[in-house]
Amino acid sequence: MSYLLALDQGTTSSRAIIFNEQGKVQATAQREIHISTPHSGWVEQDAQEIWTTQIAVVQQALASARILAKDIKAIGLTNQRETTVVWDKRNGKPLAPAIVWQDRRATEWCNKLLQQNLQDTIQQKTGLRIDPYFSAGKLVWLLENIEGLRDLAQQGHVAFGTVDSWLMWNLTQGAEHVIEASNASRTMLMNLQTQAWDEELLQLFNIPRSVLPQIIASDSYMADTATGLLGANIPIMGILGDQQSALFGQSCFEVGSAKNTYGTGCFMLFNTGHQVQFSHNKLLSTLAWQCHEKTTYALEGSVFMAGAIVQWLRDGLGIIQNSREVEQLACQVKDTDGVVLVPAFTGLGAPHWDSDARALLCGMSRGTNKAHIARAALESIAFQVSDVLMAMQSDITHPLKELRVDGGASSNDMLMQFQADILNVPVLRPKMLESTAWGAAAMAGLKAGVFSSMSDISASWQLEWAFEPNMNQDQRQFHLSKWQTALKRAKSDI
Question: Cα–Cα distances in Å, from 311 out to 106, 127, 135, 284?
Answer without folding.
Answer: 27, 32, 27, 27
